[in-house]
Amino acid sequence: MKCAIMQPTYLPWIGYFKMMNRVDKFVFLDDIQFAKRSWQQRNKIALDGTEKMLTIPCITKGLRHQKINEVNMDFSTNWKLQHQKTIEQAYHNYPYFTELQYIFELYNEPPKKLSEFTIALIKRIATQANITTEFILSSELNVHGTKSAYLLNICKELGATEYISAAGSREYIEEEGLFRQSDIIVTYEQSEPFIYKQYNGKATIPYLSSIDYIANHGFLKMKEEVL
Hints:
Number of helices: 7
Number of domains: 1
Pfam family, one: WbqC
Strand content: 15-25%
Strand order of the largest sheet: 5-2-1-6-7
Distance between the termini: 19 Å
Structural class: alpha/beta
Shape: globular
Order of helices and strands: EHEEEHHHEHEHEH
Radius of gyration: 18 Å
Protein name: WbqC-like protein
Helix content: 25-40%
Organism: Lysinibacillus odysseyi 34hs-1 = NBRC 100172
Oligomer: single chain
Number of strands: 7
């Protein structure tokens, strides 16, 4: 049984879903330290051929050691409408813009918690791309540890025989060496940029949010040609 463990991020890039589609169980690592100004609360799209960052404001003052699943979004400004308008401005002429409406529905009455909102968005995209992986929250598992020990213990709890890891975690996983002492195989998902044709003929900006691909090619091609 293959599993992957990833932090929930805001409208993640296409590689996130590619990894998700490779495994039987996908764990949202929602009970580790929240990192401000990280992909946990932001991502980028293409607007007029340049990168445009979309950031969810969060309540963090005096709450330095919050876990991801403890962070509340800040609704003192209408960022929900701003994000929707920016996405519409960027992609309203694209051939599959209407497919983004299914995602927009979640902006109407989002939960207060950041991770609940970002995970709901991720699941919506996964459903439309026909990804049938089982989803699990790390916070709901009776597992403890730090860094690679925590990842290994999650894998053991789920009965995994292979762990698919993001390439960025390779250094500390290999340095700590705990997986080498176990029966669980580690495979690293490479993070090369996925290049695809842009409807307007402009050059692809690497590592954009997956909604850029969806607006260009739709959910069906995402399943058939990417995943």
